Each structure stands twice: as structure tokens, then as C-alpha cells.
Amino acid sequence: MSESTKSASATAGDRTGKPTPTARSLTVMLWIVATGFFMQTLDSTIVNTALPAMARSLGELPLRMQSVVIAYSLTMAVMIPVSGWLADKLGTRRVFMAAILVFTIGSLLCANAQTLTQLVVYRVLQGVGGAMLLPVGRLAVLRVFPAERYLPALSFVAIPGLIGPLIGPTLGGWLVKIASWHWIFLINVPVGIVGVIATFVFMPDSRNPDTATFDIKGYVLLIVGMVSISMALDGRTEFSIQHATVLMLLILSLGCFVAYGLHAVRAANPIFSLDLFKIHTFSVGLLGNLFARIGSGAMPYLIPLLLQVSLGYSAFEAGLMMLPVAAAGMSSKRLVTRLIMKYGYRRVLVSNTVLVGLAMASFSLTSEHQPLWLRLVQLAFFGGVNSMQFTAMNTLTLKDLGTGGASSGNSLFSLVQMLAMSLGVTVAGALLTTFTGLMPRVTAANSLPAFHATFLCVGLITAATSWIFAQLSADIRQPTKRADPQERT
Fold first, then answer.
1. pTM listed for this prediction
2. Fewest CB within 10 angstroms: 56, 422, 434, 458, which?
3. Where are the beta strands (DSSP E) in 107-213?
4. In this predicted model, what pLDDT tens digit does every residue of 241-262 receive, in sequence order?
């Protein structure tokens, strides 16, 4: 999001000569933004339980469907930096309405995809629209609401976005059971049509006439770096890219990120200022988020696949099995705040990161004869510690930004979250494919050993991230009091 966003105020409508929005229109606008955020976050997880059904319909293998998830989350990461600038330049109402329209058209096309390639391309289009729903919607709220109403307004918008990823797997499985996987995308169409009309009627339009020139060079360097590293990790298994090409893509990715760092030092208005990394809690929190979320991003993809492909669950049953994860996650959020106040961020994050890694690795012990109650306890334990991890990492990252770096820091944080989610599914898919080919015991009817090895690797990667949080000072305790509309559970 552009730095000019920071200076926006609720008087934007007055500066453009437009009448002040009524209380009714403000309430409707909050519901529009909240619904848009819900749609965006819901579609990041709703497809997970439907992947085997999609694979059967499209004539693909279930373990090679990760590109459907990666395409959406990676596109969102790519589009986040430009969304705020577009809203400043073209106006919040116009861009938000366009975002809903693109998201809806992408959803309709996804439902009518005939091949995996078509579905991935349409998911990219869906991700372009989805990426702009939250940043632009939040900016619209900040522009028209008075300062004393910022916190409750942003909190209201955040709640549906927290619920969406939690109910996504269960809702996806239910839709597959009562209809077909196509309805996972079709349900967005009527909501999107109503959203476009409501946005046109009720959302005030505001823009920033002093918008700075967009940092095109820095943006290109970032997106080439992100896409290259994703292609390098997923291309070997998904597209049979040769080892030499994978190596070249990794080198290109590293070179682009280094080049951006050198560019940001000299640029007058870089997309993300490197001064943000002078804030110790932000830099540690951001790096910790990037690597810890690789495991957390892999699990919503791996668990439904494990239950359906290896254990014979239906899509709906696999979705129901995700409910303990969501319930434990919601109930553990208050606990982590008390733990941070008592023990500090370093002790909580180091120990909890190891627990999350162990919880992930414990799925390597899954068997067909495992009692149901034990499986439910295992899922609930993972959901609880994983949710505590998100809350602790998010508050650590944002707590010391202050108003000066809030806009740019929040935007960079959102990008890292979506990139890590994409990398998590990429790594999980690559590991599954690799172990499927290497292990002689793995057959089409017995994929459990490949899942066991994948869960073990993902758990080790996550547990190793605790070393990043060990760099924190022991006396950092006070959580941020700002609302965190970006938190993804």
C-alpha cells in the first residue's frame, strides 16, 4: 500500500466537495467491506477439501492439485502492493467495485473450468480481485469514518475474515456432498452481483490527489522474485522442470530480492522502505511469520488430503474433521495474551513454535486404526497451538510500527502472509510428490507413508523457526492494542 495512504483522513469526502455519508450508508458500507473480506479469506481454504473431487472431475491425480491453491494465494501476494496505490489514484469505490466484479467473474469461470490448466488460470483471475478486497475496503473505511470510530469499524470488518478460513474446509466438503465442487465457486456469484450494486450505491468515493508515482521498478523486482521462487519449488513436481532450470529460477529469485534491497535504499518512494527493518520486533516477527507459516500454510492442504486419499473419508467427513481445529483455535486466543504478559514474547514464541512443529510431526503417526477420539484430540491440539502462534507472531510484528510505518508495514505483512501460504502448499506438494516417487511402499492404494514423511518434514521446518524468535529480547511483553484486521487463522 502506498505511503500516501497514511495521510488519509475522514475528511476526504469534504475535500472533494461531496456530501458527508449518512449513518445508514456507513453501516451498509461496513457490511459490504466485511462481506468482501469474508469472500476473499473463505476462498483461500474452501477448495482444500474439494481437491480430490476436482481431480476426479478433471482427470487429474489428487496429489497434483496444489497449483489450484498456490495460484490464488500467490496472485494475492503479487497484487497486494499495488492495491493501495490504485485506490489512491482511481478512487476507493471504483477500485473496490472492480475488485468484486473481477473476483465474481473469476469464480464463475472457475466453476466452468474443463481442465486443470483452465482452473489455475481462472484462480489467478479470482486472486487478482480478491487481493484488493481487504486493503481497498479497509482504506475506504479509514477515509470516511471519524478517528474515534476507527477501532470498532476495523474490528467489525475483521471478524468475518477470521471466520472465513475456519469454516472454509467444512463448507467446501458440505457443498461437494450435497451438490458438486462447482458450487464452491458458484456461491460467490450472487453475493458478488449484490456487492457490486451495493458498492455503487452506498460506498463513498475518495482518492488522494497527491498520490506519489508508483514504484514500478521495485514492484517488478518483487513479483519476479516471488513468482520465481514459487516456480522453482513447485515446477519440478508440477511441470517436470529440469534441475538446471530450478537452480536458475532460485538464483533469479535471490537476485531480484537483493536488487530490490539495493533499489529501495536509493528510491524516493519505494513500495516498502527498508527502514521498517530497523524495528527489531517487526523484522523478527516478519521473518518468523514467513518461515513458520510455511508449515501452517501446508497443513490445511495436507490434512484434508490425508483424510480423503489415505484414510477413505468423504469430502464432507474431512471437512467436519477440521471443526476441532477451528474450535480449539478460537478458544485459545485469550490464553496466549496472558502467557505473553507473564512470560514475554521470546519464551512463548520459542516454546510454542516447537509445540506447533511437534503437533505437525505427530501426524506422521497417523494410521487407519487410530481411534477417532485420539484423532480429534490431535487435531484440536494442533488447532490450539497453531492459533496461539498466529496471535503471538502477528501482535509481535505490528506492536512497534506506530502510525508512521503502519500503512507500509501492514501491507508488507499482508504480502508475507500470502507468500508464506503459497510457499507452504508448494513445499507440501513437492514433498508429497518426491516421497511418492522415492518410497517403494507407496502405491496408488497406499499413499500413507508419503504423507507420514511429509508431515515429519513440515514439522521439522516449523520447529526450526523457533531459532528466529530466540533472537528477541526477553523483556518484550506488551501485546499491541491495535486491532489486527490482517490476522489470518
1. 0.83
2. 56
3. none
4. 777 888 898 999 999 999 999 9
